Amino acid sequence: MTFNWPISIYYEDTDAGGVVYHSNYLNFFERARTEWLKSLAINQTELLKQDIAFVVKHADIDFRIAARFEQSLSVRSTLTQLKKASMVFHQQLIDEQDNVYCEASITVACIALSKMRPKGIPQSIVQEFNRAR
């Protein structure tokens, strides 16, 4: 199960040398996961109203090639594990030739926001991801 989302590198994403600042790769990956949920008609605002939130629990990131100002790239996201209260995504920032600029394994936990404690992923979300497989 894979989802692709285009990313344009803006000046604000870079340092003085025009190279993407390291923490912005995590922003790109976050945006891609959010867009994936939106494409599955999963509304995060509605989830928040139900005291449900997704938080990054762990990130293992590998910087390979420096992305630069004005590049057009893509984030390829793959759901590799779907557990009761967490999901693991493998994400890559790639160009049109599939060169990998950065890749990460991101564990996202589902929590009851008011308690900041783990909570089972709603069945409707599990069904959407399973249907997308």
From TrEMBL:
SUPFAM superfamilies, alphabetized: Thioesterase/thiol ester dehydrase-isomerase (SSF54637)
Domain of life the protein comes from: Bacteria
A Pfam family hit: 4HBT_2
InterPro entries: 4-hydroxybenzoyl-CoA_TE (IPR050563), HotDog_dom_sf (IPR029069), Tol-Pal_acyl-CoA_thioesterase (IPR014166), YbgC/YbaW (IPR006684)
Residues annotated as signal peptide: none
Record keywords: Hydrolase
Molecular functions per Gene Ontology: fatty acyl-CoA hydrolase activity
Coiled coil (residue ranges): none
Family: Belongs to the 4-hydroxybenzoyl-CoA thioesterase family.
PANTHER family xref list: 4-HYDROXYBENZOYL-COA THIOESTERASE FAMILY MEMBER, ACYL-COA THIOESTER HYDROLASE YBGC
Name of this protein: Tol-pal system-associated acyl-CoA thioesterase
Taxonomic path: Bacteria, Pseudomonadati, Pseudomonadota, Gammaproteobacteria, Alteromonadales
